[in-house]
Specification:
Strand order of the largest sheet: 1-2-4-3-5-6-7-8
Largest sheet: 8 strands, mixed
Number of strands: 8
Radius of gyration: 20 Å
Strand content: 5-15%
Number of domains: 2
Order of helices and strands: HHHEEEHEHHEHEHHHEHHEH
CATH architecture of the largest domain: 3-Layer(aba) Sandwich
Distance between the termini: 42 Å
CATH superfamily of the largest domain: Alpha/Beta hydrolase fold, catalytic domain
Structural class: alpha/beta
Shape: globular
Helix content: 25-40%
Number of helices: 13
Length: about 375
């Protein structure tokens, strides 16, 4: 199978997410979506004919998923010889193959704060190697350790479980505090797109620490002292998006966004169990006065969303989070570069992180 660039893989991931939000395939009650009955799959077949696994001229959702998974696994990783090598690379933090992280340990005689980078990619693509080398350099020079994590994708797990992967990574870093010289009270995270929304989820979710758990990792706190969003989402309760963004759900690419949670049907979202899952994924609804400060950064224009990318990354995502934070008394630093909103003193996301971690040296 020919190799695709990471850009192409990301494009395909976005296309598939727009199609059917990539949950489990449709169940027996109806025909499986394919290029014969789904416009997005028809378009995907034209762009990625090699995704048609059995070469019958029809691209099914199953084939699209399999191709996406294969391409994600073989996509070449970016090479940057100037990026510092992790002190600890590909460390397992959980039971799944993708539960791995890299850790850069800052030189210090005292326990160090930690900034955790969570990559984006629509919960379908991306990798921990996407961590910005310049940011890592600046944090290490300031005496801040860094981590970058991988997590499961929607091809293998529902969104509610993926979010808990990230929480476990935070708990694992605290569990390794003695070995890695970590200050357990000073851990922050940030990321772009999916990583941004995940960081917001970590910031707003109640502490997942379970002191009596047989697993020592799960006894640790999952809370942050600060979180940063870059082109993120206000909630992963997708039923709220149309009203908040004032745009039709058709911009998801499919009405079947219940598959985001690996539900069989849309009706499951209306059950008590389904409502519990939606609430568990609703960052906006979880904002409370005890939440940490958040940095909310969006680079898109403030215009009505007209396509899937604008729908997923519209500045209204950040704006409504800022409004709810203000009501709850939570500090929120809003930076909407193309909407005329700038933070005090043009504070950058990395300077914000250092400030909230109690580090006086500024990041560039």
């Amino acid at each position: 199978m020919p190799r695709l660039s990471r850009v192409a893989v990301t494009v395909l991931a976005a296309a598939l997410l727009a199609m059917l939000t990539l949950g489990p395939a449709a169940r027996p009650a109806r025909a499986e979506p394919s290029s014969e009955n789904n416009q997005q799959l028809k378009q995907a077949l034209k762009q990625f004919p090699q995704a048609d696994g059995n070469h019958d001229g029809v691209l099914t959702l199953t084939e699209a998923r399999a191709f996406m998974k294969a391409m994600t696994s073989i996509a070449p990783k970016p090479v940057n010889n100037q990026q510092p090598l992790p002190t600890h690379a590909d460390v397992k933090y959980g039971p799944y193959d993708s539960n791995v992280l890299d850790f850069w340990q800052a030189e210090s005689d005292k326990p160090t704060p930690v900034v955790v980078y969570i990559h984006g990619g629509g919960f379908l693509a991306g990798d921990k190697t996407g961590a910005n080398r310049h940011a890592i350099d600046q944090y290490l020079k300031a005496g801040v350790s860094c981590a970058s994590i991988n997590y499961r994708f929607l091809t293998d797990a529902p969104i509610q479980d993926i979010l808990h992967d990230a929480a476990r990574a935070i708990q694992f870093i605290r569990y390794k505090s003695k070995d890695w010289n970590v200050d357990k009270k000073r851990i922050a995270s940030y990321g772009g797109s999916a990583g941004a929304g995940t960081s917001l989820w970590l910031a707003t979710h109640d502490d997942l620490a379970d002191p009596d758990n047989a697993d020592p990792v799960l006894r640790e706190s999952s809370r942050l002292v600060a979180a940063g969003m870059v082109n993120g989402q206000f909630s992963y309760d997708l039923t709220q998006w149309s009203d908040v963004l004032k745009a039709p759900n058709t911009l998801f690419g499919s009405p079947d966004f219940h598959t985001f949670y690996h539900f069989d049907t849309a009706d499951q979202m209306k059950t008590d169990a389904g409502k519990k899952v939606l609430a568990e994924c609703d960052m906006l609804g979880m904002i409370t006065p005890d939440d940490p400060p958040v940095y909310l950064y969006c680079t898109l224009a403030d215009a009505p969303p007209r396509n899937t990318n604008q729908f997923y990354h519209h500045p209204e995502h950040e704006r409504i989070v800022a409004e709810h934070c203000k009501k709850a008394g939570v500090e929120a630093c809003l930076n909407l570069t193309r909407a005329g909103v700038t933070p005090p003193n043009n504070l950058t996301i990395h300077a914000f992180m250092l400030q909230k971690l109690g580090v006086t040296k500024a990041a560039e």
